[in-house]
Design goal:
The chain is α/β, with parallel strands linked by helices and 452 residues long. The protein is built from 14 helices and 17 strands. The protein folds into 2 domains: 31-60 and 348-449, Aspartate Aminotransferase, domain 1 (Alpha-Beta Complex); 70-343, Type I PLP-dependent aspartate aminotransferase-like (Major domain) (Aspartate Aminotransferase, domain 2), CATH 3.40.640.10. The chain is 35% helix and 17% strand. It has a 7-stranded mixed β-sheet, sandwiched between helices. Helix 3 packs antiparallel against helix 11 (328-343), helix 8 (198-213) packs parallel to helix 9 and helix 12 (350-364) packs parallel to helix 14.
Length: 452
């Protein structure tokens, strides 16, 4: 057996052997988290950090929650994994039923996969195939309408409907064509469009594209309420409802990517519920298992489901799947997480935390170097700018956001920025006192990183 490595060996192996995502490995300095409890992470040196971004937006009830830990152990006593290709297991079946009961009306069928990108990929392929197999086929519907600056994962389909140039431009020759409309960003409206007219302006752009191209558009894909990786862009109230009405009017399917914004992040279980919207596809991942195990779900309607039914020889089957689709361990901890939502009244306990975060953001907004603060539920973004009046951004290469987060680490707060946007998205189980610590570290970090 290999002897237990020293901390320095772990750091050396981490630098050389482990290729970290979205990380420039030439500059990487290892941060090795050894254990966690509640909303606190502990590294190999024993230093403690408040998990200010929910371990990349997925942890919900804190780490090492006894109910979630127990659920995995109980499932292990039965079976760890069975294939979902032509077979099933009780735990996965119960999770599917539970999700249908919680989801917006009309979403009655659940396809499980592994992560957010695969959940979106499933929706894209289902939408494409649906138009070819429904009773009145529309095979000309091959395009997708997406938002500029969108992020829907890193598979080629997810990147095709994405729009973050820094992430995606390299792969442009591999991607399929999409139609795009500007992200509804109230902070950066076009010249001559005041913030109070943002909603009408952005919906008019969607309608213009739908009116011209609806016969070729299979679906519109968007993150409801908040575009997360785009910089925590909070859409104008009513935008989601307006998009749903337009897509229905022009016979275009709607894919709601709630990978980041679902599972309570916005103050409701699903972001779509804020505007009473039922999409044709609802994509879930990240917080679905409370942040414990990889599991994703794509929910869809009975009408779409029926288009895939037929004799074996007709080949209407959805020929798509993953080895770990519907994994019982992931399903068990997801069920336990939904139980905790109910037993601990997680959503009911959010308003005081949301209000406290809002108070901090109002104070932080007055800092020099802060152009905009935006919030929806326990999701917040703080955009740093060189000039408040012109909204001129700091150059990407100056690493202002990274510098803020590096400072926060010195105060025991772990964050990860999106360029010049500081993200605060803690577990829903965060305490008010811990929120205060996060906000204080961010405020002092911004002052330090923008001092000149």
């Amino acid at each position: 057996m290999m002897p237990e490595p020293s901390r320095e060996e772990l750091r050396r192996w981490d630098r050389y052997h482990v290729w970290h995502p979205f990380t420039q490995m030439a500059e990487y300095e290892p941060l090795i988290i050894e254990r966690a409890e509640g909303c606190v992470l502990v590294d190999v040196d024993g230093k403690r950090y408040i998990d200010g971004v929910s371990s990349l937006w997925c942890n919900v009830h804190g780490h090492r929650h006894p109910r979630l830990d127990a659920a995995i152990g109980e499932q292990l006593q039965r079976v760890a994994h069975v294939t979902a290709l032509g077979a099933s297991n009780p735990t996965t079946i119960k999770l599917a039923r539970r999700l249908v009961e919680l989801a917006p009306p009309g979403l009655e069928h659940v396809f499980f996969s592994d992560d957010g990108a695969t959940a979106v990929e499933v929706a894209l392929k289902m939408a494409f195939q649906y138009w070819r197999q429904r009773p009145e086929p529309r095979p000309e519907k091959t395009l997708y309408l997406t938002l500029e600056d969108a992020y829907h994962g890193d598979t080629l389909g997810g990147v095709s409907v994405g729009g973050v140039s820094r992430f995606h431009d390299m792969f442009r020759p591999l991607l399929f064509r999409c139609l795009r409309v500007p992200s509804p960003n109230p902070y950066r409206t076009p010249r001559g469009v005041p913030r109070q007219r943002a909603l009408d302006h952005y919906l008019a752009q969607v309608e213009r594209v739908l009116a011209e191209h609806h016969a070729q558009i299979a679906a519109m894909v968007l993150e409801p309420l908040v575009q997360a990786a785009a910089g925590m862009i909070v859409h104008p109230p009513g935008y989601l409802r307006g998009v749903r009405e337009l897509t229905r009017r022009y016979d275009v399917l709607l894919v709601a990517d709630e990978v980041a914004v679902g599972m309570g992040r916005t103050g409701r279980m699903f972001a779509c519920q804020h505007e009473q919207v039922s999409p044709d596809f609802l994509c879930l991942a990240k917080g679905l298992t409370g942040g414990y195990l990889p599991l994703a779900a794509t929910l869809t309607t009975h009408e779409i489901w029926q288009a895939f039914l037929g004799d074996y020889a007709e080949s209407k089957t959805f020929f798509h799947g993953h080895t770990y689709t519907g994994n019982p361990l992931g399903a068990a901890v997801a069920l336990a997480s939904l139980d905790v939502f109910q037993q601990e009244r997680t959503l009911e306990n959010l308003p005081p935390k949301i209000a406290r975060l809002r108070q901090h953001l109002e104070r932080i907004a007055r800092l020099p170097g802060v152009g905009d603060v935006r919030q929806r539920g326990l999701i917040a973004g703080i955009e740093l700018v060189r000039d408040k009046a012109t909204k001129e951004p700091f150059p990407w290469e100056e690493k202002r956001g990274i510098r803020v987060c590096q400072y926060a680490r010195t105060e025991g707060v772990l964050l990860r920025p999106l360029g010049n946007v500081i993200v605060i998205m803690p577990p829903l189980a965060i305490s008010v006192a811990q929120l205060d610590q996060i906000a204080g570290a961010v405020q002092r970090g911004i002052a330090e990183a923008t001092r000149e």
